[in-house]
Amino acid sequence: MTQQSVATSDKLDAAVLKVAGVVVLGAIMSILDVTVVSVAIPTFQSEFDASYARVAWTMTAYTLALATVIPLSGWAADRFGTKRLYMVALALFTIGSGLCATADTIGELIGYRVLQGLGGGMLMPLGMTIMTRAAGPHRIGRLMAVLGIPMLLGPIGGPILGGWLIDTASWHWIFLINLPIGVIALIYAQLALPKDAPEPSESFDFVGMLMLSPGLALFLYGVSSLPEAGTFADAKVWGPMLAGAALVVAFVLYSFKPRHPLLDLRLFTNRNLTIASVTLFVFIIAFMGAGLLFPSYFLQVRGESTLTAGLLMAPQGIGAMMTMPIAGMLADRVPIGRTVPFALALIVAGFFSFTQVDPQTSYWLLGGSLFVMGLGMGGTMMPIMTSALRTLQAHDVARGSTLVNILQQIGGSIGAAVMSVILTNELNGSRPIPGVTDPSGKPVTEAGLAIASQQQPELLQQMPVDPSIIERGLDFAATSFATTFWVAFALVLLTFVPAALLPRRRQPAQPLDDQAELAKAPVVIH
User: Which part of the chain is the Major facilitator superfamily (MFS) profile domain (predicted)?
Assistant: First the structure.
């Protein structure tokens, strides 16, 4: 028990898995939250009597908070220690969840989601830093695979759990469910995570923070306003986008001057990190943007309940669970440039079915397609993230994972906004029904009434219309979804371009080559 040495075995020992368990709980909580809320949007619309664009801010506000706080996590992890900061992030997320359940208005819910996002934004980059230090760069692929399986419980279980809670209890429980998980995670983190070794000598880049965090928030606010405005010409869209982009560009030019910038863009001199980040960014725009529309198709065009929509999404997560452990083991042995293109090909094959959807498309076909996409997804995301981080020096891992997480959040926000705008514009092209208006006096379109009647059949009794109008409206709505999926499909194809540049030769992980890093590295006690 007196000898300590850095782990060199490829096997994951009990000490590493104990630390990984803490990160899994935090990741499940934050991922579960995103997927649960995605199926609750129609419920929020009727509960708070708000438009889709207004309710969508329950997700956008969370993302904005994430993007604002992620740049701080690299410096804060070094300054205050990863254990202390991770527990603060868990506490913020758990408190935010409890407050969300008390919201009486859509404005209150959006505000509390910001608090949740401030905690959630730090959970993932801190978790990746803790994991990499615990396992060492040479085992990061294997560790990502082990962690990936339970982390997929969020995407699989989120829509199912959310649908069940909404159908059997109330929407409040989709947030209350986080409270016991949060308390358990806090106790577990206190017991399992190693003591912190903060580095108070590094100065904080206040100038960088004043440019980057507001810049990202403004840019993403403008992008997220697109679905409501419907056009880039609206000042609410291009104003914040231009201001945010100017601040981000100013930060990029400035960031090479200080010794310890808020976001270390010098890391992009590492070719592996750059190519992996670009590949991940393009993939996230396509896949995450379209991913939000899959349950919407089941809810709005097929008229399924939130629980059924969640169950219909399960094959994707099951497919990913099957390939993720294999991909993780391969990532430690085979260059990802030889495996990721095959995984992307599976995603393309599965995705094509969604470009052909109509109101009667077979659920067997769609379920099979989601399963094939899941197989591809399990072999894509974790290996790319592994490639991005494994060749970094140990002291750069926290900042490297921060870069990767910021790109993920920006890509996800852009993808969600672009897909929402395309779908909204397509649906707005539907034919108005003569003499039928909504409570505000606006004409009701065939597609609009058809979608509304799928969730609220009583509408057809209040405004009797020819059944052929509803049929035409559903056909139009399905075509609108198919057109949007075509755009996402083209973006997935575009991912093959940077993926072709991923490393095709095995490159060794960087050793922990100085005493300070050895002190912070994971140890096996004999």
Answer: 19-507
